[in-house]
Amino acid sequence: MRYMMLIHHDDAAMGKADQKQLWADYTAFNDALEKAAGAETGIRLQPSSAATTVRASGDTTEVIDGPYADTKEQFAGYYFIEAADLDEAIAWAKRCPSHRFGSVEIRPVHDPKSGW
Amino acid sequence: VTTQVDEARRAAERVARESYGRLVAFLAARTRDVAGAEDALAEAFAAALQRWPRDGVPQNPDAWLLTVARRRQTDAGRRRQTRTAGETHLMMIQDEIEEAAMHPDEVPDRRLAVMFACAHPAVERGMRAPLILQTILGLTAVDIAAAFLIPPSTMGQRLVRAKIRIRDTGVPFRVPEKEELPERLDAVLEAIYAAYAKGWGEIEESGTPALADEAVWLARLVVSLLPDEPEAKGMLALMLYAEARRPARRDPGGAYVPLEAQETALWDEPLIDAAEALHLARRLRGTATWPAIVALYDHLLTLTRSPVVVLNRAAALAELEGAEAALAAIAPLAADRRMDSYQPYWAAKGHFAALAGQKDEAHEALRLAIGLSTDPAVRRYLQTRLEALRDG
User: Rounded to the nearest 10 degrees, how much is the dihedral formed by the CA atoms of B175, B179, B180, B184?
Assistant: First the structure.
């Protein structure tokens, strides 16, 4: 099954961590993921301070400076992975260094072949 | 003639139930679609209950049911194929099921795998026990709803949602790897114990004994499929021990008999023996009994923080160390708001407080217990306790 790992983390907490160690961990994680079948290079986004949100409100469309929700943990990037089942996807999420500073949401990708 | 038909029906139901769980598990583990497997088997099951009492239980019930289910699945598969591209996969599954119907003795037992799927951390905790009861035992949403005190329509919707979630999130149907097994087995055991606790507490109402039987059956199944797991054996031993005492809980007039006054001769010997054979070096009788029971409940407490376990453990502790120790053991429950309307809590507290000579506390707790009782026999018994407290 194809899954997306949506990474949410607390930028401030991550900033306080040992950066050298963190990026070494991330490099190792990316290398391991690259070896695994079906995985694509992950996408890392700029911090949420760079976000702009467009939202419809009644008949008007608002443009808001900032992310769609003002929470401590912000959407930071994503990976697509290929896993046999949810347990395998959970194992990848547990390996992802970001989960130490926030959360990794795992969502199965909609399969148009499933009929709906 | 009627009794003959009844007997045949009961036999059919028994055999069909055993087959039902095994076949749902087999089909669901292949397709990862519990609801689809249930649909396919529902018709086969209905046909069996109609025909087996009349024609007799077939020599190989699995083969009979699988043949009917296969026909039904082929139809469903054909309908789906017009709008899906998963044809090859469906055909592959179809072939496997066909193969299994030819050699029903070799249908692999996937019930354990399905139980692990139902108790997966991705499944809402409260729905794990209901899911296992439905998929492995074929209980209806209405029966499960009654035991779990949830409206049937709500239970039905939540079961459907849980099954869709299992299918769509890709929850695996297999026994977890060694390093993950202890934690995940705990979830399965917790779900089975939840079913058992719903069926039969210790000090309270007559409840729904049928569900306790089902839970014991599931625990036996887990032990038979995972014979090396001491946790599973310990839980089964405890359940059998509690079950053994069931016949002693009512006197011939139907009045409630508390544990301390029970006639041990009425305890079910084979069940006690089975409990001992499973777990205990010491005989579960007389004064040597209580340390072993407290130890078993300690063990169970590590599995589940259920108040039912806390209360049962306290009852055993009262025998071993006295009423004060029992009162101390249940003290943490006082902060739990669910206890406000939980009859067994007040009945136990009243009992321990009376033994400890704390008259006011006993009086208050017993009155609340009486007010919360729905079983007339229990209410009568508690009233005699309250009167004895006033007179004494």
Answer: 80
Chain A positions touching B166 (Cβ under 8 A) are none
Q: Which residues of chain B have pLDDT under 70?
A: 1-5, 7-8, 11-12, 15-17, 73-107, 198-210, 245-290, 292, 299-300, 302-305, 392
CA distances from B79 to A41, A91, B84 (A): 39, 37, 9
Distance of alpha carbon B379 from alpha carbon B79, whole angstroms: 57
Nearest to B171 among A85, A113, A115 (CB): A85
What is the ipTM metric for this complex? 0.75
Report the chain A residue with the minimal C-alpha distance to residue B83. A115
Q: Show Cβ contacts of residue B91 under 8 Å, excluding neighbours closer than 6 positions.
A: none
Contacts of residue B358, defined as CB under 8 A and 6 or more positions apart, other chains included, come to B327
What is the spatial distance between Cα B47 and Cα B369, in angstroms, rounded to a whole number? Answer: 47
Among A10-24, A62-76, B187-201, B357-371, the range scoring the smallest mean pLDDT is: B187-201
Report residue A19: phi and psi, to 5°. -65, -35
How many separate helices (H) and strands (E) can be counted in chain B?
Answer: 18, 0
What residues contact B278, with CB distance under 8 A and at least 6 apart?
B223, B233, B234, B236, B237, B240
Nearest CA in chain B to A83: B170
What residues have CB less than 8 Å from B105, skipping those under 6 apart? Answer: B60
A3 touching chain B per CB within 8 A: yes
Q: Which of A5, A87, A104 to mutate to test the interface with B (most CBs of B within 10 A)?
A: A87
Residues 6+ apart with CB under 8 A from A37: A82
3-state DSSP call for residue A57?
A: strand
Report the relative pairing of strands A74-82 and A2-9 from DSSP bridges: antiparallel
Report, as an integer, the average pLDDT of A87-114.
88
> Between chains, do B80 and A86 touch, taking CB under 8 Å as contact?
no
> Which of residues 7 through 26 in chain A touch B, CB cutoff 8 A?
none
Q: Do A85 and B170 touch (CB under 8 A)?
A: yes
Q: Which are the contacts of B140, defined by CB distance < 8 A and separation ≥ 6? A: B134
Pairwise CA distance, residues A3 & A93, whole Å: 11
The position carrying tokens 């018709």 is B43
Judged by CB atoms closer than 8 Å, whether chains meet at B170 and A108 is answered as yes
Minimum CA–CA partner of B85 in chain A: A113
The burial class, CB within 10 Å (0-12 / 13-18 / 19+), for B158 is buried
